[in-house]
Design brief:
Length: 50
Amino acid sequence: MSDDEAVEAFLAEADDVLGEYEQGYMDADAALSRLSNAVEDLRDATVEGE
């Protein structure tokens, strides 16, 4: 996965999480957990590309 694809995937996940949180479909702990996982995935994808 290219860096651009990794960033796009992260932003899509972040948008989904924020949308679900704002609509009340998940609590703050779940939202932070998903965002944390997305950050780790982004970090892994961009570090592997170096």
